[in-house]
């Protein structure tokens, strides 16, 4: 008797549990964000934040002005769990062509053009990823500008060139990140004025600047190195398969600089999109690639996340056919690979379902599915189990069990070593963007 009563309680409990979980699964919406260009992408603690930009069709603001993708879970690029943070974005005007960078837990935003007033945004903004709050940050004496790139190194921000007025400048502002006091760099041998160029911090503490737009797109047969330690510019000739003049491309750092996409003039997006510059001998080459080659893009963004170059949005592709986020696996220097799956190695996967559940202020898109390595089994199990309740409860329970078991195995696997095995600081490269008009 007691046994039967317990059994019934158990069954009822299970039904409720499943309805509850089903509800969560159902309420998980996969957002298809408006396409955009001239946005920023910033990688901070496992999350890639996408901010601003204009729609490709009519230069208005995309509905989702602030999004992130969680890189602490594996996912397929054709089913990305975009988290919509737009409602937290009440202070920053709709804008494009800004530059962002990450300082500890803070996302800094400089410049950009206000989409509604068409004015350059003068103050900086900062977003605290822990409190999810935006603040205005005044910087005195530095003009707001569009089409610049900011680089961060050891509590200093380097902000070169861009367009504060109707013309471009070539000043390099050196800004302390704690109080935003600043000075100008030595201008001898600096690049001529430009916007929408490429810039990357090299391991030897030089910043390399290349390409961009002035009164036309700027050739890549010359690149410029700024020596951070000695406040000194040098000009370098490049060799090999030099890419055509271009701007609004994206690039990555390391000993090789990879550039993707860009445009030659107002209309023409470059065809040969992928090039590599070896920064030891300044030779360009076209890398060998496998996988499905995506359309070239412009005004997109790239970030280096683990072994992937992660490209987001931009102009030049059809959102119905191609994905908003592209992954280029660059772990093998002799052959890169376009891939659609972001796989976490077991050791880097230190985020468990419990941790996710414990975060109360997560946006509405709790991603049960993407947290389960075995997502489809879980979904199938839960849905069948809940719809046909009593009868198929056992099926549901079985899948549930399997899911918990998988989860346990995963969690155990992460226990011995929680360190990011890439051993690598994951660097976000704020990008260049948008047509120059
Ligand atoms: C601009 O395009 C977006 C989609 O790209 C659309 O949602 C929006 O309604 C359009 N706005 C106008 C004013 O046409
Ligand atoms: C994202 O949030 C914004 C602001 O709350 C809203 O306007 C937009 O419709 C949301 N997008 C989706 C796809 O839910
Ligand atoms: C980042 O955080 C570390 C440790 O809390 C602190 O020492 C450092 O000053 C911070 N860096 C900046 C640029 O604020
Ligand atoms: C600026 O750099 C040049 C070399 O590129 C050097 O000759 C000059 O003295 C420097 N100027 C200042 C003010 O340090
Ligand atoms: C156009 O830009 C180039 C560099 O891109 C510069 O050398 C040249 O002086 C500029 N010409 C005009 C008319 O501004």
Automatic annotation (TrEMBL):
Source organism (scientific name): Rhizophagus clarus
One Pfam assignment: Kelch_KLHDC2_KLHL20_DRC7
Biased composition (Low complexity): 355-366
Protein name from the UniProt record: Galactose oxidase
Residue ranges of the region described as Disordered: 352-373
Keywords: Kelch repeat, Membrane, Repeat, Signal, Transmembrane, Transmembrane helix
Source organism phylogeny: Eukaryota, Fungi, Fungi incertae sedis, Mucoromycota, Glomeromycotina
Signal sequence extent: 1-27
Listed transmembrane segments: 378-401
